[in-house]
Amino acid sequence: MDDDDDDAGHDEADIAADYIEDLLDICDLDGDIEIEERAGRVYLSVTDSGDSLRVLSKPDTVTALQELTRIAVQSETGEFSRLILDVGGSRDVRASELSSLVETAIERIEAGSPTASLPPMSSYERKLVHDLVSERGFHSESEGEGRDRHTVVTR
Hints:
Elements: H1 3-26, E1 32-38, E2 41-47, H2 59-77, E3 84-87, H3 90-110, E4 115-117, H4 123-135, E5 139-143, E6 150-154
Parallel strand pairs: 2-3
Antiparallel strand pairs: 1-2, 4-6, 5-6
Helix pairs in contact: 1-2, 3-4
């Protein structure tokens, strides 16, 4: 990664962190923001010592906040943002749910079903599912368009 790429990732992270910090202030919520960059993607984690973030950590709320944060970054930088937002450990909870979905799909295939379709999910979640399926020695593909895009698991 060259210096321009480092600066772009840093700018994206700073803009996103400022946006989330302002949102927390508006909502009168406390939270600590941690920034990590992996494979050219910014990961923003918001944590707290209590459970004040519980209201913001629901999957649909986190997805909406992530999209709003991406838009805020894009409006400042003019560049598309692929940042990932985690609020109150919501991503770990969702990863566990996805693991259970994959396990159920594989059980169906091992019981004789030729395929097992999972419900529609975001591209980030589908990527996690593809990785989990591959680790188990099975194959997966994304099918459908837009909000109906989902993963189909095969042997």
